[in-house]
Amino acid sequence: MNKQIKIIAVILVLTIVPLLIYGFLQLKSLSEDEQIAGEIYEKQMETVLFSLNQLADDMISQWARKMNNSDRSFKESANDLILRNESIKMLYVQRATNKSDTVFYGEYIEPNKDVEQQIEEWFYQNDSTLNKLSEYFKAGFQKVQGVQSWHQYSKEGSPEAAITFVISDLDSAQYYVFIVLESRLWIEQILGIQMQVLASDELNAAVFNKNSKEIIHSVNNFDQLRHYTSAKLWILPDLQLAIQSTGESYQELVKQRSRNNLLFLIFTLIVLVVGIIIIIRSIQNALRVAQLKSDFVSNVSHEIRTPLSLIKMYAETLMLNRLSNEERKAQYYKVIYQESGRLTHLVNNILDFSRIEANRKVYNFELIDFNKLVEKIHQGYEHTFNEKQVNCILNLSPDSAKINADPHAIEEAISNLIENAIKYSTEIIEITISTKIENGLISCLVKDSGMGIPKSEIDKVFDKFYRVENALTQSTKGTGMGLSLVKHIMDAHDGKVEVHSKINVGSTFILSFPIVENNEQDTNS
User: Which stretch is the leader sequence (predicted)?
Assistant: First the structure.
């Protein structure tokens, strides 16, 4: 047993552990692959968003450069800018020095003093922002600044956004410019065409308010419930650019592939583990059979040695004429006869088992009366019953039935059951041999009052070389072939063998054979 445990432990270490490590590394690799693929996909999406952001920034920068035209006044530039860009609702210009302001409205926009007041308040509250823009401007950079949360000032239905920058007029004075945009119209005019080109048939694109999630403009039925990649619109920080695949997203495809790979890996590991378990069981069975064969050789040697020793001793005594009493001589002759019969039975079992193993066992079938055969077998054991003080009861079925069988094989099967009943019984040996006819079958029942067989062992007792492990079986020698031969004989005769047993109560072995019908009997006769 220790040897088996060591072998199984080595197999587990050499197979299961590497498999588990391999599985862990594969899972880790799948996770890393998914992360890398996701990062690549995000970078590609970010590149698309960057191009849109760059376009929006360039367009607003062009507005700032037009307003800063040194060949004409800012008023002319402002009017021209509003006429050319329908999305501009209002353009507010404030002189940096004396805070005087000039307001321009779009063609269809009504003047609104409240909005003008809000812009003045914004200028007052964001003095630091304006100073930075002025410093950039003086340094030669005209930076455009998006106005955050301008939608909070809008009281109209359409969403608005605002931008501010610094310009200089013909008199070289600095001015703060504040432009209020209609977001939806501006995006459609400035970004819409480019979004359509970039999206094509493979991508959905959208611009939405990052706080309210309201979609301002979309291309190809953008779905906010599905995965998408987004980035803040630089020039209008309250708006969000977003893009997604028209079909399954790359992340979803990667996850699905990773999931499929994971399932396949788990299935492979399960198959390998099952295979290893089967191999381990096979090794266990092989080791068990090897141990049983070793025990078989030892038991057979003992079984043969005992009758041979008795035969030799009694024959030697008779040869030397050491017995003058004829009754004692007859007794010695009987012992020699019985032991030679026991030896013959053992050798026949071994030979039959060898023929069965080599598929060379041949049965000679003939029509026999089952009750007569059982009665004959019982009579052959009368001396053994008397010698070993066995109380054996014979109950034969009142009806006669015939079977097509090999009488020697059936005798061998029943004899093995009787031998076991005697061998594995306790102090008082009681055996009942009976026959019965039921459901077209005639059966022989051999019932003993022995130690019984555990339920967990019943299915194994017909295996070759198998013996139930307990104190009585260990002290009682046997080959472990008897019940295996019984099972083979019953299979060859289209019969069946059953066992009913209780520990410390006894066992009942039932051999059932199909009855030969009358028309079959006539044909055979």
Answer: none
- The runs of H, that is alpha helices, within 322-424 are 326-357, 370-380, 382-387, 407-423
Are 250 and 37 within 8 A, CB to CB? yes
- The DSSP code for 21 is H
Q: Are 381 and 421 in contact (CB under 8 A)?
A: no
pLDDT (tens digit, 9 = 90+) per residue, 34-48? 666 667 767 777 887
The reply to whether the predicted model has a pTM over 0.85 is no
Dist. CA 403–CA 411, nearest whole Å: 13
What are the φ/ψ torsions at residue 59 (nearest 5 degrees)?
Answer: -65, -45
- Neighbour order of strands in the sheet with 496-502: 390-395, 429-438, 441-448, 506-514, 496-502
Residue 59 CB partners (closer than 8 Å, separation 6+): 190
Mutual angle of helices 407-423 and 370-380, in 10-degree steps: 50
Give CB contacts under 8 A, 24+ apart, made by 112-119.
114/155, 115/90, 115/153, 115/180, 116/92, 118/153, 119/92, 119/178, 119/180
Backbone angles phi, psi at 209, to 5 degrees: -70, 125
> CATH number, domain at 379?
3.30.565.10
Q: What is the structure's pLDDT at 154?
A: 54
Quick one: 226 and 368 in the same domain? no
Instruction: With CA atoms as reference, report the closest residue to 426 among 389, 459, 457.
Output: 389
Residue type (1 letter), 55: L
With a CB cutoff of 8 Å and minimum separation 6, the contacts of 184 are 158, 159, 216, 217
Of 247, 275, 301, which closes a domain?
A: 247
Whole domain around residue 372: which residue ranges?
Answer: 363-524
Domain end point (choices 188, 222, 247): 247
Beta partners for residue 178, in sequence order: 92, 164
Q: How far apart are CA 435 and CA 375, in angstroms?
A: 10
Relative orientation angle of helices 183-190 and 192-199, to the nearest 10 degrees: 60
Greater confidence, 429 or 30? 429
pLDDT tens, residue by residue, 179-222 = 998 888 888 888 888 888 877 777 888 888 888 888 888 888 88
Specify if 297 maps to a domain.
Answer: no
pLDDT digits (tens, 9 = 90+) for 335-383: 787 778 777 777 776 776 666 666 767 788 999 999 999 999 888 888 7
Look up residue 388 and give its two tokens. 């070993």
